[in-house]
Amino acid sequence: MLKKRYLSCLALTLMLSVMLLAACSEGESSTEAGGSSENNEGESVHTEENSGPELGKKDLTIPYVAWARETVVSYLMGEVLEDIGYNVDVKQVETGPMWASVADGSADFTASAWLPESQKQYWDQYKDQVVEVNQTLDKAPLALTVPTYMEDINSVEDLKGNTELGEQVNWKITGIDSGAGIMSLTDQAIKDYGLDKWELQHSSEAAMITELKSAIENKEPIVVTLWKPHWTFGVMDLNMLKDPKGTYGGDGGHISIVAHKDLKDNAPAAFKFINQYTESYEMIEKLMPQVFAEDKDPEKVAREFIKDNPDLIDKWRKGIPTE
Where does this chain mainly localize (predicted)? Predict the structure, then answer.
């Protein structure tokens, strides 16, 4: 009887030992394969697969000006950062407050920086507090623009002394918000080209487009301030006027992501993402009309883009662990 008990106990001991060894082996294999494990204190240990820059602070603010490209890009970047693990506030503001908030740290970065000429005054004011992280588009022309049916108007010079056109539009150039760089450049163009009777009307991009749509529907003359990339060029027949004096800076410079100078230290993963982010005119020209011509929610448009372009998103997020 005792012998049977001894043998039973021995068998049980051997079985438990085998199970313990198997469990240890499995745990070591899973750790070697990557992922997280715990140390003796129960703290998470990062392994090779999820190593990379830390999130740092979790809450981020992205200010943007309510222009077409800036809207869709800001929401797209916000959605990707949310997937990485941040809490993101995408915030519509005007140009001056946008730069000021990034400079003083109440916001983290903006993808709406038009440099070097269009927003030169803000760069000159805040350049010691911000850093230009990533040039996303290398050409962003700005110009006075008219519908193509205004066949006699092809240059800013064609506005000078043009009484017939001036009276038809009440000598008005329809502009956008007063803090925009294209507005100060248009004020300069009025001086450079001697457009003495012409006045620049300050409004907003939305109001300007409403007037542009109305004029085109009725085939009436209109002169507006516009730029590329912009969704209107995909749905309207428009002509950007030649600028022989170069007041608008030729190709308009470039568009960049500008961040607060401490973002790299405060949110390393976010900084790596905006440094790796890329953009193309084709991409933007597909996104803009969905929001501004089809009136879709920019968050939903961004989410659909992320779903449909996994390889591109992976490039933007390369080396960035998800928390």
Answer: membrane
